[in-house]
């Protein structure tokens, strides 16, 4: 049965935002993240290898749930669905993107950074949103301000989040989880340092809300 956006954000405190240059890295990386306790994996459509990486993880790592990030156009959604992605993350929102995800039966975390974008996504039924770019757009203070008018909306802030500030975001009542690229450093991927990635995942999976 299809995954909901709530399933995606409620699985762990962190969704890794992954940039893969080489297909051969995808499967061992996914296994390392799963071994560390993180199984919702956002593979960004930023590299020529991304779709093949999604396909490989979907086929060979059944314990992982692979999604596609940086989806900007409806065509991205269709290609990701064909590759086996189970959810979609976008940096912004457009109704066509929402329609495409509905059409493919895929959960969508639409990206928002303003009240009007939250309202546009809400009009189309999306109430679990990515807040991007979180630290540049206003950080925890903006999330706190949104909790008044948008008290029923939950967010996955992403952009500028790291182990040092993740706990402060997670302490906010309207934050379900955070997203970040720190779990899969380019260097560790290039070197095949799977123990390092597993350790980063384990640390991320253990993150807890931390009031400032
Ligand atoms: C994203 O696409 O969500 C961001 O590139 C991730 O931001 P970060 O690199 O600051 O974690």
From TrEMBL:
It catalyses: 2-dehydro-3-deoxy-6-phospho-D-gluconate = D-glyceraldehyde 3-phosphate + pyruvate. The keyword Transmembrane helix does not apply. One of its GO terms (molecular function) is 2-dehydro-3-deoxy-phosphogluconate aldolase activity. It holds the Pfam family Aldolase. The keyword Zinc does not apply. Belongs to the KHG/KDPG aldolase family. This is 2-dehydro-3-deoxy-phosphogluconate aldolase.
């Amino acid at each position: 049965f299809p995954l909901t956006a709530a399933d995606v954000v409620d699985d762990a405190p962190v969704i890794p935002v992954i940039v893969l240059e080489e297909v051969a890295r995808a499967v061992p990386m996914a296994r390392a993240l799963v071994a560390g306790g993180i199984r919702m994996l956002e593979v960004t459509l930023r590299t020529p290898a991304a779709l093949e990486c999604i396909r490989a993880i979907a086929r060979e790592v059944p314990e992982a749930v692979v999604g596609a990030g940086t989806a900007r156009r409806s065509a991205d959604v269709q290609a990701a669905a064909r590759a086996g992605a189970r959810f979609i993350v976008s940096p912004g929102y457009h109704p066509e993107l929402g329609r495409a995800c509905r059409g493919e039966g895929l959960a969508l975390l639409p990206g928002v950074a303003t009240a009007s974008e939250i309202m546009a996504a809400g009009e189309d039924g999306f109430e679990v949103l990515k807040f991007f770019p979180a630290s540049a757009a206003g950080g925890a203070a903006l999330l706190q301000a949104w909790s008044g008018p948008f008290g029923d909306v939950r967010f996955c802030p992403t952009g500028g989040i790291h182990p040092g500030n993740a706990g402060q975001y997670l302490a906010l009542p309207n934050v379900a989880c955070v997203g970040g690229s720190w779990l899969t450093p380019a260097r560790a991927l290039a070197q095949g340092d799977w123990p390092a990635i597993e350790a980063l995942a384990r640390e991320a999976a253990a993150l807890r809300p931390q009031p400032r």
